[in-house]
Amino acid sequence: MTTYIDHAAPMASTPTTTNPITEGYTRREILTYAWAAAVGLMTLETTFAAFDYLKPRFRAGEFGGKFTLGIASVLPTDDDPPVSQPNGKFWLVNTSEGPKALYMVCTHLGCLYKWDASLGHFKCPCHSSEYSREGHYIYGPTSRSLDQFVVEIVENGKVMATTQQTVTGIMPPHISNPNAEIVVNTGQRLLGQDRALSPMRRA
Ligand code: FES
Question: Which atom number of ligand 1 is nearest to the Cα of residue 111?
Answer without folding.
Answer: 1
